């Protein structure tokens, strides 16, 4: 019996040039979104100890930072604000002159071609550090969703190209889509963080944005040992 295979798949792996020809996955600059941490009311960069090599940038340096990033070939940025104007609701996020709106305007006027995709949440802007409005020691989903819509329309009005809601509120994407459309921003896209886990992996991020959180987010983020709590029940 002739056991010599006719189908020798390794022929397709035989050289670098052959492997390149048949490659399915590529990781290019266009696949990456660059996060920027911008703090208001500071003059010097602040190193983020939990994210070595990453700094909080003074708001006044944002335009230059974005120009440098664009010169490096980066086309997408996700600004995170470190607010000094916190309150119980995070209302600075729907102020047309608040930090979020200012960041978006500054980036778009420095480099109009840069796609701006702001994080849409409240934890950097609330004095309690949670991702929404608190009622009876819980984040109230529906009021928070209403506020997310206000924040989203404000960001769109400032010039955001795409929005990245990360609050993990039920119904947030639909509400934001309807709110954007009703305000005339049909072309502003939504990049939803569809799965966020209540995990200690967010520790470095919390330090980066100076979140005031005490307690945890287990009531609204996914249980990290069982993602089924995120999609099995209605
Ligand atoms: Zn948040």
From TrEMBL:
Enzyme category, top tier: lyase
Matching Gene3D superfamilies, A to Z?
Aldolase class I (3.20.20.70)
Q: Which residues form the signal peptide?
A: none
Does Lyase count among this protein's keywords? yes
**Gene Ontology terms, cellular component aspect?**
cytosol
* InterPro entries named in the record: ALAD, Aldolase_TIM
Set out the biological process GO terms recorded for this chain's protein: protoporphyrinogen IX biosynthetic process
Q: What is this protein called?
A: Delta-aminolevulinic acid dehydratase
Question: Organism classification, top ranks?
Answer: Bacteria, Pseudomonadati, Pseudomonadota, Gammaproteobacteria, Alteromonadales
């Amino acid at each position: 019996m002739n056991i010599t295979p006719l189908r020798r798949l390794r022929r397709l792996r035989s050289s670098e040039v052959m492997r390149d020809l048949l490659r399915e996955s590529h990781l290019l600059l266009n696949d990456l979104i660059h996060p920027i941490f911008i703090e208001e009311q500071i003059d010097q960069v602040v190193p983020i100890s939990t994210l070595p090599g990453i700094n909080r940038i003074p708001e006044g340096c944002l335009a230059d930072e974005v120009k440098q990033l664009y010169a490096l070939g980066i086309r997408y940025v996700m600004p995170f604000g470190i607010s000094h104007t916190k309150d119980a609701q995070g209302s600075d996020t729907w102020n047309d002159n608040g930090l979020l709106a200012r960041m978006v305007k500054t980036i778009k006027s420095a480099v109009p071609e840069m796609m701006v995709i702001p994080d849409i949440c409240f934890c950097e802007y609330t004095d309690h550090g949670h991702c929404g409005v608190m009622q009876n020691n819980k984040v109230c989903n529906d009021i928070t969703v209403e506020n997310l819509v206000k924040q989203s329309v404000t960001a769109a009005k400032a010039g955001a190209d795409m929005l990245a809601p990360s609050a993990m509120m039920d119904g947030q994407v639909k509400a934001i889509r309807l709110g954007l459309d009703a305000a005339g921003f049909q072309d502003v896209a939504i990049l939803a963080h569809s799965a966020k886990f209540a995990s200690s992996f967010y520790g470095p991020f919390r330090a980066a944005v100076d979140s005031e959180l005490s307690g945890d987010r287990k009531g609204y983020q996914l249980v990290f040992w069982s993602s089924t709590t995120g999609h099995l029940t209605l």
